[in-house]
Amino acid sequence: MVDRVLSDGQIKEFAERGFVLVPQVVQDDVLAQAAGRIDEIVAADPPATDKRGNHFYFLPTKDEPALRAPLTRRPAFGLAEELAGAGTLKYPWQVQVALNIPPYSYRPGGPHIDAADSEPTGEPIRGTFTLLAGILMTDQLTENSGNLWVWPGTHLTHAAYFRDHGPHLHCAYPPIDLPEPEQIKGRAGDLLLAHYLLGHNIGGNYESEQTRRALYFRISARDHASHRSEFLQDPWLDYEPIRRPGQRHRPLHRRLIEHSKGRADASHLKTA
Ligand SMILES: O=C(O)CCC(=O)C(=O)O
Ligand SMILES: [Fe+2]
């Protein structure tokens, strides 16, 4: 099987808008098994009968083969690594099952980034990651049907904010100027890839009668934890193929060989 790849247009879209929805990534049998596992999880610990809107389950991926498979089976994880670089991402330890139960008449006033604290704390920066991978588990073909809301381009505005004012201001609601939001529309089996710094929020579910279901994975580059502050200011730190677009079509091992050769050549020149 030839692995799917992101087109140049999709990579450009991610770079400029901070997210891309890749249609029909998850194979039908993998999707069906994940859906069956969500049924079990919800049946074992159902939301209150009057519950509306978001209802989440956070589960360790090591215990959830059927839920991690949509990400780890080809090609989803490889598509994420096309943005970040082959071999650079860690499998996430946790999966979020995200329900949005109708009727939920809600329109978010603004976005958040995934930070534990709503205000800056002055504590060392924690909880950041490289990218969010979302697997749509239900069709969301119309707006206000439990869709995720995103504020396109805010990955760059947030980074500019942290550069200008300092990464110690990391929190869920940095005060930036906002563009018009968009609602993600797609089908079960689509893969959303979103930059950590993209502003987003849960939306309402008042134009569908179906509970919205999605899986979310928070994925980090292997060395992400060593440079959280820098990453908040330099959004492409974990994204070598976007940082250096010319390198993208050559496999990593070739680039490493060329890189080490380059160094050897340079030292040769110096001693000559
Ligand atoms: O449920 C959603 O679509 C969004 C949830 C979210 O943004 C979060 O849990 O951080
Ligand atoms: Fe979030």
Identify the CATH class.
Mainly Beta
CATH fold annotation: Jelly Rolls
Q: Which residues sit in consecutive blocks of at least 5 with pLDDT less than 50? A: 257-272
Q: Which cofactor or ligand species appear?
A: 2-oxoglutaric acid, fe (ii) ion
Percent range for β-strand residues: 15-25%
- What's the CATH superfamily, by name? q2cbj1_9rhob like domain
**Structural class per helix/strand content?**
alpha+beta
> What would you call the shape?
globular
* Helical run tally: 8
Question: Share of helix among residues?
Answer: 25-40%
Q: End-to-end distance, in Å?
A: 49 Å
Total number of beta strands? 9
Q: Give me the CATH architecture, please.
A: Sandwich
What is the residue-mean pLDDT, rounded to a whole number?
Answer: 92
Structural commentary:
The protein is of the alpha+beta class and 272 residues long. It has one domain: Sandwich (Jelly Rolls), CATH 2.60.120. It has eight helices and nine strands. Helix 2 runs antiparallel to helix 3. It starts with 7 loop residues before the first helix and ends with a helix. The C terminus is likely disordered.
Secondary structure elements and pairings:
Layout: H1 8-17, E1 19-22, H2 28-44, E2 53-60, H3 65-72, H4 76-84, E3 94-101, E4 131-136, E5 148-150, H5 154-165, E6 182-183, E7 191-195, E8 200-202, E9 212-219, H6 228-233, H7 240-243, H8 252-271
Antiparallel strand pairs: 1-7, 2-3, 3-9, 4-7, 4-9, 5-6, 5-8
Helix pairs in contact: 2-3
The chain binds 2-oxoglutaric acid (AKG) and fe (ii) ion (FE2).
2-oxoglutaric acid binds next to strand 3 and strand 8.
